[in-house]
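job 3f2a | input accepted
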Amino acid sequence: MSDSAELPLFASPISAGFPSPADDYVEKKLDLNEHLVGNRQATFFLRVSGDSMIGAGIHNGDLLIVDKSIPAVHKKIVVAVVDGELVVKRLLYANQKVFLAAENPNYAQIEVTEEQEFAVWGVVTKVIHEV
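job 3f2a | predicted structure (131 res):
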């Protein structure tokens, strides 16, 4: 990752209703790392393929920001490896079992068994998608 990604931040908020005159000056430079990356040494980015997490606002082609230093606790959205395949799912614990749940009713949740290779790579902290 480069040292900074500074972009202009305009001093006036933008109106989502009726147009308002824009100010002709920039308030300061905005470093996206300050807003998107909590722990630079533990953060990585992944591109999403598929629609199993659309209910959580994660769409095909989105860019995920994932932090390996955040604890993977119940109900967090995580990036995990299951039998050699990377997946993004909601982590659930129930009755001393581990589940990876999709956020799309077209997909079944995955029960993680002791026979499977399983590891959580990190917790999803941000989702970037085009509108």
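job 3f2a | The two ends are 25 Å apart (CA to CA).
job 3f2a | closed
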